[in-house]
Structures are given as structure tokens and as C-alpha cells.
Amino acid sequence: MKERAERAIAGCRRIALMTEEMGRTTRRFLTEPTHAVHALLRERMEALGMRVAVDAVGNLRGLWLPRGAGEKRLMLGSHIDTVPNAGAFDGVLGVMLAIEWVGIAKELRLPLGIEVTAFSEEEGMRYGVPFLGSRAVTGTFDATMLKWRDADGVTMDAAMRAFGLDPGKIEDAAIGDDVIGFVELHIEQGPVLEAEGIPVAVVEAITGQTRLNLRFTGQANHAGTTPMHLRRDALAAAAEWITKVEKQIRKAATTTDPGLVATVGRIVVEPNAGNVIAGSAEVGFEIRYGSSAARHRWTKKLVGDAEAIAKRRGIGFEWTERLDQQTVRMDRRLSTMLKAAVNGCGYSVRTIPSGAGHDAMVMAAHVPTTMLFLRSPGGISHHPTESVIEADVEASLNVGREFLMRLAKEVG
Ligand code: GLV
Ligand code: MN
Ligand code: MN
């Protein structure tokens, strides 16, 4: 498996160079470098004898249908878009490993159909909404999103057409009941496996999340001539709210709601000039927690706080919900098979919840789904220093071998 692990890691490093921004990895949904990623993946898939196509939402899908496999197939995959200034492994490693799993199935002559999907979008960076690729695959893509615009004013519809896709055909991307399950391989993106000295773990559930866009609208004006008490400063209003969010959620996380996290990771200020009072501040907010009731309660409370702050300051306020994704449990039968495969390889069987979102969240509502995590050195992800240990990648391939043999026996 050493050669497979080396090839998967080298593939991730090469794809990290396919970027929108010189010197760092940023690859948002359907931006130009996605073509180069598709070309590399296509080459690897076709070399194995897979049939490759790109669906209408830009997912690259490779089909491995060996003789005697029948119509049913297992799906494997992860995403190929990234956050800004990303690492090389979030998402892409899952695609590289999926291709290697196909290579293993081929080597073992397993009569098992496998489809590998490189989902075009999972991070939610370009249109403020994640899982575009897996939504199309599960037939849950909401076509009203096609009118949404990115930061440059390009509609989702136009972005798809510019990439050479036909948004009118998104419905055709949906899978039917010939898919028997979905497995996503992904880095943990957290410190738990490293702390315990364990190479891989089986995911038990993925934490639900809600994302909002909030806009504070004040009055842009001269920073030198407008007295403090006559200002309507949108950025100051947003800042007051952000610190209030942090204070309350920190307290709740150590008292009533352990594990609760909320983040403001994005703020767009207009006109964003040192000598102009901010006229508007648009804030990207997300909150993650297992209990939907508590997540919704907190969302309502925090939006109420923003409203109150805006009112007191004479500032306009509006908000929109971009995502409300429930917590999902992984499929018991498929996870048990994956745990048996981990055990069969002689590794400790560890199950773990995922705080990060994954395409598996969307897939799980439609097809039996499970995930395998690989240890993240330093617990670092969404950062250029994100890495993996080659021996762990080998471990995940050994698990793949065991898992595929078990599944082929069951299906066949
Ligand atoms: C995806 O990486 C997410 O959890 O935001
Ligand atoms: Mn990510
Ligand atoms: Mn990811």
C-alpha cells in the first residue's frame, strides 16, 4: 500500500497548486483551476478503466463497473473546492483515496461496481451555501439558488455556463436506488486521534449547523468631521454584536451547552476605508451543535441581540438564513462493516463525532452513508500547514481493502 499512499499524497500536493491565487491554495466552486483538477482526476480514473463524466453541477464522476458486478454500486468521494488559503488534504484526499480504493478492488477482482465522485462544492465559499455538489447528487438542489450572485456579481447560473455546464440538466445528476451506499474518506481536521495515537476512526455522527448572513446598514461619512455622537457606524454595530456572540457562546459552552460553537469568520465592510465611517457591514455567521432545538434557540437569541444593537444605534439591520443542516447519524450497518474492517487490520476501533460538515451529511439522508477519518497532525485544517502521515494513509488503504472485500461478499 506504500506506493498507493505516496501517489495519493503526491496527487493532493499537485492539486494544491491548482489555485485561483498565486502562492496559496484557493479554489472556489467552478473557478478556472477546477478544470485542471478535473483533467488530473480524469486521467487517473481512465487509467484504471473507469468511465468518466462531469454532471451539470460540475461533479466529476468516475464509474468502475467490472464484469459480473450487476447494476448496484458503492459510491465513494469527497469535495475538490477549498476554503481561501487552504491546505492540500481537506476533501481532495478523499477523492485520491477513493481512486486508490478502486485500484484495490480491481487488483482483487472484486465483482463490485464503484462510483467515485469529486464533488464540485462543499465549503460554501463562493455563494455562501455549502454542499452544492452533493445536493445535486441527492436530487435536493434548490434551483432558486441559480439566481444568487458571488462577490463579483456572477450568478450561479452564469458560473455554471461559463464552466461549460447546463444548469437546466441538474436534475439528471441525481442518483437512483442502484447506489447501495456512500463512504467518504476525510482528514479528521481536529486533534483527537493525534492525542490518542490512533491512525483512523469511524465517524458516528456529523454535527448540525446553521449559517446566516447579517447586514448592518449605517451612514458612510467623513471620519474627521462627524462627531462621535452623530455617527451611524455599521462596523461598530457589527463589532459590538460579534463580541456579544463570543461572550455568550463561550459561557454556554462551559455551562449549559457543552460543545456549542459559533463563529463570525467573514465581514465585508463598505467602503472599507480608514477615513470613512463604515456605511455597511455584512457578517457571515455560523453556529454548530448537535441539538437542533438548542441551535435554533441560540440563533433566535443572537439575531434578537443584533436587532437590539442596531435599533439602539439607529442602524438598519436585515438577515437571511443560508443553511440549516440537521445533525445526521451515519448508517449503522455500513459503519459496523467499516469498524470490522478497522479491527480486521489490527487497528484500535475508535468512533468519533464530526464537528466539521461533509458531503456525507447530505448523502446520509438519501443513501446508507459512513465516513472514515484519518488523523490530522497538530489537529490543523483549513490552513496551509494541514497535513497527513503517510503511514495513516496506508492504514486507510488497508481498511479500504478489508471493507471492500466484506462489502463485495455481502452484495455478491
Ligand atoms: C467544512 O469544511 C465545514 O465544516 O465548514
Ligand atoms: Mn473544509
Ligand atoms: Mn472537507
Plain-language structure description:
- The chain is an alpha/beta fold and about 400 residues long.
- It has two domains: about 1-205 and about 330-410, Aminopeptidase (3-Layer(aba) Sandwich); about 210-325, Alpha-Beta Plaits.
- Helix content is about 35%, strand content about 25%.
- It has helices at about 1-15, 35-50, 90-105, 130-135, 155-160, 190-195, 235-255, 290-315, 330-345, 360-365, 390-410; strands at about 50-55, 60-65, 75-80, 115-120, 180-185, 200-205, 210-215, 220, 260-270, 275, 280-290, 315-325, 330, 350-355, 370-375.
- Strands 1, 2, 3, 4, 5, 6, 13, 14 and 15 form a nine-stranded mixed beta sheet that branches. Strands 9-11-7-12 form a four-stranded antiparallel beta sheet, with helices on one face. A two-stranded antiparallel sheet has the order 8-10.
- Helix 1 (about 1-15) crosses helix 11 and helix 9 (about 330-345) packs across helix 11 (about 390-410).
- The longest helix has 22 residues, at about 290-315.
- About 45% of the residues are buried.
- Bound molecules: glyoxylic acid and manganese (II) ion (2 copies).
- The site of one manganese (II) ion (MN) has 6 residues, from loops.
